[in-house]
Design brief:
Elements lengths: L3 E12 L2 E12 L3 E5 L6 H8 L7 E6 L2 E2 L4 H5 L2 E4 L11 H11 L4 H11 L5 H4 L8 H12 L6 E5 L7 H16 L3 E6 L10 E6 L2 E6 L1 H7 L5 H10 L9 H4 L21
Parallel strand pairs: 3-8, 3-9, 6-7, 7-8
Antiparallel strand pairs: 1-2, 1-4, 4-5, 9-10
Length: 273
């Protein structure tokens, strides 16, 4: 079984009296796709930002490749890439200018930045690359944002709702890209509020109001809870949610033996087929 590349224990984030993330525990295995499912405000982005060091942890610990994420933040930054839900690119710069800017702050040399700019011209028309990011189609912005995220060849990749606001074809193509990265040995955490997308992941977590309601392999969770779809599974988990924050053991794992790791289904194919 693949080793854990990230271990999260008792992770908590509070803002004053508000608890955004409530003492959650989970692991991410090396080379897997972990799907983060939850409605807006569930705590997905807050959790991701604490893992990659962009947000201070209130309580708990995160180990990345066995290293404490707070003590070794600078070193660990080199192995992680983050495509945020918003503000991934500067909208008033064009795509080539964004590559130059983010390449510079990531430590790439001028030669390496020039190579990256030439590289993206192979897949995106130069006329689009020279337009301000705010003026290009969402699908192009998404491709450029992912390209920027991958410029330093990170080992661990965080994608925060990457398919939000794009059409079904763009979503499908993006998931093919996610699978290509997995085949290269990358580890990916992909957050989403689209119920169908989480079925493409190796394992999934469901967050709600900062609490971890469920984790496991999608197919195994469906089987264990006798549900026909992720939609039914999600609704059941929310209905059985304890607002006191106490863990509901019925939903925390995929069965008596815990979550099962398995190969992913091809993008576009639902797991229960």
């Amino acid at each position: 079984m693949p080793e854990n590349i990230i271990e999260v224990r008792g992770l908590t984030k509070t803002f004053g009296s508000f608890t955004a993330v409530n003492s959650i525990d989970f692991d991410i295995k090396k080379g897997e796709i972990l799907g983060f499912l939850g409605p807006n405000g569930a705590g997905k982005t807050t959790t991701i930002k604490m893992i990659n060091g962009l947000l201070k942890i209130t309580h708990g610990q995160i180990l990345i490749k066995g290293w404490d994420s707070v003590r070794h933040r600078k070193a660990l930054k080199q192995v992680m890439g983050y495509m945020s839900q918003k503000f991934s690119l500067y909208p008033l710069l064009n795509s080539l200018e964004n590559i130059e800017f983010f390449g510079g702050i990531s430590g790439l040399s001028k030669r390496e930045i020039k190579e990256k700019q030439e590289q993206i011209k192979v897949t995106i028309d130069i006329s689009l690359l020279k337009q301000k990011v705010t003026d290009v189609p969402p699908g192009i912005r998404q491709k450029v944002a992912l390209f920027v995220c991958l410029m330093t060849d990170p080992e661990i990749i965080f994608l925060d709702e990457p398919t939000s606001g794009v059409d079904p074809e763009v979503r499908r193509n993006f998931w093919f890209e996610i699978y290509r990265l997995k085949k290269q040995g990358k580890t990916l955490l992909v957050s989403t509020h689209n119920l169908d997308e989480v079925e493409y992941a190796d394992r999934m977590l469901i967050l709600h109001q900062g609490n971890l309601l469920m984790q496991g392999e999608p197919e195994q969770l469906l089987k264990h809870h006798s549900k026909a779809s992720i939609d039914d599974l999600f609704k059941d988990a929310i209905i059985n949610y304890d607002p006191t924050g106490a863990p509901n053991q019925k939903f925390l794992r995929g069965g008596p033996g815990g979550a099962v790791f398995s190969k992913s289904a091809p993008p576009g194919r639902r797991r229960q087929e």
